[in-house]
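Folded chain entry —
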Amino acid sequence: MSTLTDLLKDGSDLRAAYHGSEPLVLRNAVALDGLPRISDILALIDGSLLRRPYFSVLQDGLAPSDSELLAARTVAGSRVDGFIDSVAVGGQLANGATLKLNQVEDWHPFLRDVNDALNAVFPAESKAFLFYTPAGKRGMLPHRDGSRVIAIQLEGAKEWHLYDTPPEPAAGLDVDTSKEQVVVMEPGDLLYLPHGTGHAATAIDSTSLHVTFTLTEPFPSALVQAYIDEWIASGRPARAGRDAGSPLARAAALLADLNDFGSRVDSAALVDRALATARLRDGSR
């Protein structure tokens, strides 16, 4: 068994699968030392400062209202809303709901390091999520994510139902479930899903805990914005429009310069800039 970062080395099965179109399962592949346990999740529910939006509760795709999950606290004499209500959330879990912890890399040092490693290797923005699901239950209906997915089973076992990927996949619930592949994930197993792979997962014999890393590549709009940012940073717009005598002439000069600038832009640098902007926006290191 290896740490996840060891599985990211050049020539690894995971690196090879990243640009492929088929799911990958690596059995007994990841050492679990340092990764969260169910006892850690229960402690977080009972006594942490968890607040929205760092957690959500789901059962078959449905979420309780905030009034059923949240509590206020008095901190230094001021009322602060949005904290997890441990009793209410505990009741939801006892009734079969899934607890989803969002962007765990913001507060879990070990997962932050793994997340940083994924950001360093893949041309995508990585985020980490934990799913705590009672036996026999699922948190989400069959769906497709708008990202590639790496899932690692931490405790218990989970049965993943994988569905065909459409020619032009997009995030959503319109999944064709007529054909499926069933994969049972045990602690230490890793599952990689290409972008748009339809899936749903159900805990089987006991409470399940798994971590999911979503790998989101820059959308076209982000690449266009990075292109414009590169152009503005070059100082060329100010020079191109400086001598124009009218708004129309200025616009023509800027468009001509923008077209010329495009022939000089390095595509890899453009992707790097788009990713750097996304990670800075979301607070990633």
Remarks:
- The chain has a mean pLDDT of 92.
